[in-house]
Specification:
By secondary structure, this protein is mostly beta strands. It has no helices and eleven strands.
Length: 112
């Protein structure tokens, strides 16, 4: 079955950086586009970024464009999200997503 395991979250100061990782298994990773989605406290789910199956194209929510970079390593079934210039409003649980499958998420907290 599909398994997605996120890691890399934690506490960061405003202006800081974090790099999230997602290890995928149970499906042909290189054949699927992948996304990052976040659950913001009190605001529900927000789509953050997506990447084409071969990494040739990527898309970002306006709120993170220019600050976040999505990437993937198809040889090792890994998805990444480099988050720079973090802001308190980036505080959320971040999920790796493919089709209808989700990981358990990783908490990102941005606070001074």
């Amino acid at each position: 079955q599909v398994e997605l395991v996120e890691s890399g979250g934690g506490l960061a100061q405003p202006g800081g950086s974090l790099r999230l990782s997602c290890v995928a298994s149970g499906f042909p990773f290189s054949g699927y586009g992948m996304t990052w989605v976040r659950r913001v406290p009190g605001k529900g789910l927000e789509w953050v970024s997506g990447i084409y199956r071969d990494g040739s194209d990527a898309w970002y929510a306006e709120s993170v464009k220019g600050r976040f970079t999505i990437s993937r390593d198809n040889a090792n079934n890994r998805l990444f999200l480099q988050m720079n210039s973090l802001q308190p409003e980036d505080t959320a649980v971040y999920y790796c997503n493919v089709d209808a499958d989700w990981g358990l998420g990783t908490q990102v907290t941005v606070s001074s």
